[in-house]
User: What shape does this take?
Amino acid sequence: MTSDTRNKIALITGGNRGLGKDMALSLAKLGMDIVLTFNSNPAEGEAVAQEIRLSGGRAAALRFDLSDTAAIDGFIDRLKATLSETFDGAERLDFLINNAGIGRPIP
Ligand SMILES: NC(=O)c1ccc[n+]([C@@H]2O[C@H](COP(=O)([O-])OP(=O)(O)OC[C@H]3O[C@@H](n4cnc5c(N)ncnc54)[C@H](OP(=O)(O)O)[C@@H]3O)[C@@H](O)[C@H]2O)c1
Assistant: This one.
C-alpha cells in the first residue's frame, strides 16, 4: 500500500468475474476503495465486494448494463448514493477501468 493508492476510489466495470475481478482484488490489496459493476451476476458481484470487505477494504457492487443507455442516469444516481453512504461522502472517482464487455473468437 502507498499513499498514492490508499483510499483512492476505483470504479471497475465488469468487476464480478474474469479480468475485472482480478483487477478489483489486486487494486483493493493496494489499499484502494472499489466500486465494481456487474450485469447479469449479482451474486458474483457481491461475493467480490464481500471478499474485499473481509480483507479490511471498502467495496460496493452495483448493477450496470452498458448496453442500456437509458439506464445511465439511474446508475449515476445509485453511484452517487453509494459514494455518499459507503465511501465517506466522496463526490468523485479517482480511477475508471472500462473493462466490461464481450469477446468473440472470429476464425
Ligand atoms: N480475456 C481475454 O483474453 C481478453 C482479450 C482481449 C480483450 N478482452 C476484453 O477484456 C474485458 C474482460 O474480459 P474477460 O475475459 O474478463 O471477460 P468475462 O470473464 O467474459 O467477463 C465479462 C464482464 O463484462 C460484464 N458484461 C458483459 N456484458 C455487459 C453489459 N452489457 N453491461 C455491463 N457489463 C457487461 C460481465 O458481467 P456479468 O457477468 O454480470 O454479465 C462480466 O463482468 C472484456 O471487455 C473483453 O472483451 C479480454
In short: The radius of gyration is 14 Å.
